Amino acid sequence: MIETIKLSKTYKGKKAVDEINIYLDEGESVGLLGPNGAGKSTTISMISSLLKPTSGDVKLDGKSTIKNPAEIRKVLGVVPQEIALYEELSAYENLKFFGEIYKVKKNVLEQRIQDVLDMVGLKERQKELVKTFSGGMKRRVNIAAALLHNPKILVLDEPTVGIDPQSRNHILETVRKLNEENGTTVLYTSHYMEEVEQLCKRVYIMDHGKVVASGSKAELLSILSSEDTIRVNLSETSDELIKKIKSLEYIRLVDETSEGIRIICKKGANILGDLVRAAESERIQLTNYQMETPSLEDVFLHLTGRTLRD
Predict the structure, then answer these.
(1) Rounded distance between C-alpha atoms, residue 73 and residue 60, angstroms
(2) pLDDT confidence tier of residue 308, bands split at 50, 70 and 90
């Protein structure tokens, strides 16, 4: 349905997005993951026709959207990372304004406003000013605005950042229903791996402007088939201890956690003795050692050297 072909964007000689190729089939829910600065938002802006690529193309049903962005705008709903609402207007007034911008017919708009307010759980609050809403409620109004013209494709750029658990759960359930029950094609970016695992059948991982891996959850997990993931709880950590562990030849990555460290190492490596000796040399106590089943977070760490929230 949507395809990017060697899509690139350069700012001041630096490539923010570097010849990426991604696609979304009709009715799919696809995740786009990457640490800060990976190029996710720039990619979304180009797909949405809000930003012109330096090179490459975006195609909708095989037709380029670069010279004729009106076609993709008809079928695309975008939920931006930043809240884009008029604070001094009510939720209803905001939606009426955006519905007119989308050129929704007057005889249809009123019903669509009520429908989308019902979808995001704010029908009873529609007459209240947006400035009185919580951050989560504002994001739900943002989603409602993107749905007014009944788009076939919904693009969401980190829609749950900094919101309350109730709104987060409501947003996730709304996106799930739109995809599974309405057949809406979804492109979803997030800093929360569990959201992508819950909503998306396929995932693209970006880093430094490039797609570094893609596939289903099973396909991505297979990347770590030759490695082990180990969680080690420590009485404390130190830079010197981390340095010593990283120097071991079979260590791939070491990531600090709230309780110690997470290690990705060569499969079958006899690591425990070396860990104990390294910890003892720094007078640090090793309190727990546990092999873990690899997760998408581990794959992400393996590929980018960073956790998703970094």
Answers:
(1) 11
(2) low
